[in-house]
UniProtKB/TrEMBL annotation:
The gene is nsdhl. SUPFAM superfamilies: NAD(P)-binding Rossmann-fold domains. It catalyses: 4beta-methylzymosterol-4alpha-carboxylate + NAD(+) = 3-dehydro-4-methylzymosterol + CO2 + NADH; 4alpha-carboxy-5alpha-cholest-8-ene-3beta-ol + NAD(+) = 5alpha-cholest-8-en-3-one + CO2 + NADH; 4alpha-carboxy-4beta-methyl-5alpha-cholest-8-en-3beta-ol + NADP(+) = 4alpha-methyl-5alpha-cholest-8-en-3-one + CO2 + NADPH; 4beta-methylzymosterol-4alpha-carboxylate + NADP(+) = 3-dehydro-4-methylzymosterol + CO2 + NADPH. One of its GO terms (biological process) is cholesterol biosynthetic process. This is Sterol-4-alpha-carboxylate 3-dehydrogenase, decarboxylating. Its EC number is 1.1.1.170. It comes from Salarias fasciatus (Jewelled blenny). PANTHER family: BIFUNCTIONAL POLYMYXIN RESISTANCE PROTEIN ARNA, SHORT CHAIN DEHYDROGENASE_REDUCTASE FAMILY 42E, MEMBER 2.
């Protein structure tokens, strides 16, 4: 039985609030006067004003406890994208998201903002200034992407203005910033092992990298714009820095900022992709005997060697989105935030 929450209520919940994006979102929500509950399988920090609920989003009862009196839910939980655990992705991103929707409806939540990904339309080939009307990838490049597609469809289809349950999906791309556990740490680890000497392809491919505070800004704008009859109900929105950059220029700027050499030598894209594919097949065949994780997976090679940048015109038009931190400043703040990853540290 749904208990309707009073209008104007600024109590929200962040599912996945212990993660990189989730924690930045929680911090900004607190600044803006929201009271926040975090629901996550782990607690990674403590903050005054935040109530933590430890639990798995596949557990409806645990969710219902965390969603009591909450009017707005952000769902930004996901398994690590680099994993190849198909069952885990399906359980968390598909069944788990279905459970989140059911729990929101049962708890009387009015708005659900999903963190999707621009990669739901990416198949490993060039996308230039892609808009939201591009079809979902028919051949997603990995289980992460395949299940993010299903997740986004579930959330958008659940939008029901009659029943007062409104949903929207934010599609960020290449999130970076302080405390990111993925992009900068993987890059530095690769450099420290002497493997960041090569540029895959001619180095001219443009990609979106999005500073985490812009992603947070997009989420909060969406939540505050999401009202009955608003054009954003049930729709996906690209949120990027709106400054596509050459993939290898971005990587070089971060590397040089941290004291490492920029990659210099070019390798043909098809050769590196073919080798990465071969290596990946080998890891599958040898999995019963040895386990090893190649740095250059076919997915990473595709992301590093193709154009993939997206238009955020729709977010500008429908919710007045404009990035709040430029790419240059975002990179400087990110580099500064990783003293322990500097060369020689
Ligand atoms: N990092 C990136 O470049 C991009 C990320 N995204 C999306 O943004 C969202 C946030 O990503 P990040 O903050 O980078 O990841 P993250 O790994 O730092 O955070 C994810 C959080 O979800 C939690 N979680 C995982 N499984 C759970 C479960 N079964 N129940 C409850 N909590 C669970 C984790 O404990 C973690 O705290 C994800 O949905 C991801 O798909 C989208 C585009 C790009
Ligand atoms: C070893 C180097 C060639 C590359 C190091 C950097 C990569 C770890 C990152 C470059 C682009 C990133 C990216 C994602 C993860 C980290 C990178 C591969 C995502 C797959 C994260 C989840 C998404 O939704 C899409 C992202 C696209 C870009």
């Amino acid at each position: 039985m749904a208990t309707r929450v009073r209008p104007g209520n600024k109590r929200c919940a962040v599912i996945g609030g212990s993660g990189f994006l989730g924690r930045h979102l929680v911090e900004k929500l607190l600044d803006r006067g929201y009271s926040v509950s975090v629901f996550d399988i782990r607690q990674s920090y403590e903050l005054p004003g935040v109530v933590f609920h430890m639990g798995d989003l596949c557990d409806k009862q645990a969710l219902l406890t965390a969603l009591k009196d909450v009017s707005l839910v952000f769902h930004c939980a996901s398994p690590f994208p680099g994993s190849d655990d198909r069952a885990l992705f399906e359980r968390v991103n598909i069944q788990g998201t279905q459970t989140v929707i059911l729990a929101c409806i049962e708890a009387g939540v009015q708005k659900l903002v999903l963190t999707s990904s621009a990669s739901v339309v990416y198949e490993g080939t060039d996308i230039k200034n892609g808009r939201e009307d591009l079809p979902y990838a028919k051949k997603p490049i990995d289980y992460y992407t395949a299940t993010k597609i299903q997740q986004e469809k579930l959330v958008l289809e659940a939008c029901d203005q009659q029943k007062g349950f409104l949903t929207v999906a934010i599609r960020p791309h290449g999130i970076f910033g302080p405390r990111d556990p993925q992009l900068v740490p993987i890059l530095v680890d690769t450099a420290r092992r002497g493997k960041m000497k090569f540029i895959i392809g001619d180095g001219s491919n443009l990609v979106d990298f999005t500073f985490v505070e812009n992603v947070v800004h997009g989420h909060i704008l969406a939540a505050e714009t999401l009202k009955s009859n608003s054009p954003i109900c049930g729709k996906p929105y690209h949120i990027t820095n709106d400054e596509p950059v050459r993939f290898w220029d971005f990587m070089s700027e971060v590397l040089v900022g941290l004291g490492y050499a920029a990659p210099r030598y070019h390798l043909p894209y098809a050769l590196v992709y073919g080798l990465a594919l071969l290596l990946w097949l080998l890891t599958l065949v040898l999995r019963p005997f040895v386990s090893f994780k190649p740095t250059f997976t076919p997915m990473r090679v595709a992301l590093a060697g193709t154009h993939h940048y997206y238009s955020c015109e729709r977010a500008k038009e429908d919710m007045g989105y404009k990035p709040v931190v430029s790419l240059k400043e975002g990179i400087a703040r990110t580099v500064q935030s990783y003293p322990h990853l500097r060369r020689g540290a």
